[in-house]
Structure formats: C-alpha cells, structure tokens
Design brief:
Length: 248
C-alpha cells in the first residue's frame, strides 16, 4: 500500500531546513503525494519563524497544482503542564497542530515529568498529534500516554526521521508505542519529519514498525486524505471543505 499523506514537513522558515513550499509541491507531484502539512517549528525554538508566520499562513492556497497543503505547526511542549508555544484563538486558524519535545525548549528531565507533560498536553485539547514520542532522550510511561491519547482522540507519531538522521535508537520505543496504541484503541500517524523536500512521504522505516506489530490500517491516519481530514474535522478544525476534491 502506498501512503500519499504526510503530516510533518519543515520549510526554510525553520532555518535548519532547506526547502521552500514550491520545492515541496514539485516533489509531492513527482511522488504522487496528495496531501501534506507544513509544520515549521513553533516560535520558542531559537531558529524558528516568528509567531506571525503561523498567523499569516492564511495566504497559502489549500490546494496547489492538485496537491493539498495543510497549514500547520510543530509546536514546542514548554513544561510539565503541557503548555505549547502557540495559543488561544490563533490555534483555530491552523488546519493541524503537532507538538513535541525539543531540547532547546524543554531540557530532558525524568520519565515522570515527561509523561506528565505529554498527558497534560494531550488533555489540553490544543494538539492533534504528538511528534516523535519514541525519542530515547525523553523516556515516558508508554502505556499511560497511549491510553490518554486514545481517550482524547490524539494521534501518536511514528517518526521516520528518528530511524535515519536523528533520535537514533528509537526503534524499540516506537515498536512499544505502536503496540500500546494498538491495544488502547488509539490512532497512529507516520511523519517523514522532512527538513528537505526530497524526503517528503518517506516512511520506509516507520512502515516496518507498523507492519511488525500488525497495526490496524483503519487506525493509521496516512491511509488516505479522507482519513486525515475526517480526523481533523472531528478534532474541531474548520474550513477543511476546501480539500473536498482530494476525497475519492
């Protein structure tokens, strides 16, 4: 099965990434990707775009040359209260909200602190997807986090980049997360975490994890544009009707 939806990509607005929106559209067309999200790092990261970058994403067309582009953010979890660096009514202007731990914003602490932070973030209602929860630098109580995510209809990410260029050694944690989400009845999503357009839609290692645990395809959000869009609508995002042409 080909997965033609990617929820995690960074542009040159995050200055440690290397591709423009135009670059991503070209690669998406070449690969047949139907829908992807632009999710630059939240403003508390040292080289992240300004807060206004996310406010002004309204200027982006939602469909460009037949490819759906979701207006999103990979926010930073700031503390064990689960706060993120994008807030209030501004969250409603985005199509998708990801959040995760990043060392410059939330230095690694204890398993208990990390678990509390993720559960509070999940329970806040502000975040759709938790990014790279398998990061070995941030140990968590996987079963508790998976149960909270399932209860609150939040997806946990299997991050393909974690197996290739960053967060090395995440395989065991990601396998455990996939199993825990499977048992809890929750949702998974695969993210390329692309920092250059060439890797958009690359899920090879993440697919190995998904297949190894026999995760139910009907609970994998990448399976179709419709699956992701229905999830986001259920999460309270509006104005998604502009993507209706992507639904078969």
């Amino acid at each position: 099965m080909k997965f033609l939806v990617d929820t995690h990509a960074h542009t040159i607005a995050s200055t440690h990434a290397y591709s423009t929106v135009h670059d991503y559209i070209r690669v998406a067309k070449e690969k047949g990707i139907k829908l992807f999200a632009i999710t630059d790092h939240g403003p508390d990261m040292a080289d992240a775009p300004h807060f206004w970058h996310f406010v002004n994403m309204r200027v982006l067309p939602r469909i460009i040359d037949g490819v759906g582009v979701l207006r999103g953010i990979e926010a930073n979890i700031k503390n064990d209260a689960g706060d993120i660096d994008f807030f209030g009514d501004y969250l409603q202007t985005l199509d998708i909200v990801l959040a995760g731990f990043h060392e410059p914003v939330f230095p690694p602490s204890t398993k208990e602190v990390h678990t509390r932070a993720l559960i509070n973030c999940i329970e806040s209602g502000n975040v759709d997807i938790i990014t790279h929860p398998g990061n070995t630098v941030y140990p968590i109580d996987i079963n508790k986090v998976a149960a909270a995510a399932a209860k609150h209809n939040v997806a946990l990410e299997i991050n393909n980049s974690s197996f290739l260029t960053s967060r090395k050694g995440s395989e065991a944690n990601c396998t455990a997360i996939a199993n825990a989400v499977k048992e809890a009845g929750g949702l998974l999503v695969m993210g390329s975490d692309s920092h250059v357009a060439f890797s958009l839609g690359n899920f090879e290692k993440a697919i190995e994890i998904i297949e190894a645990v026999e995760f139910p395809i009907e609970r994998l959000l990448n399976r179709s544009p419709e699956a992701l869009l229905c999830f986001l609508s259920a999460r309270g995002h509006v104005s998604l009707d502009e993507y209706s042409d992507l639904i078969e």
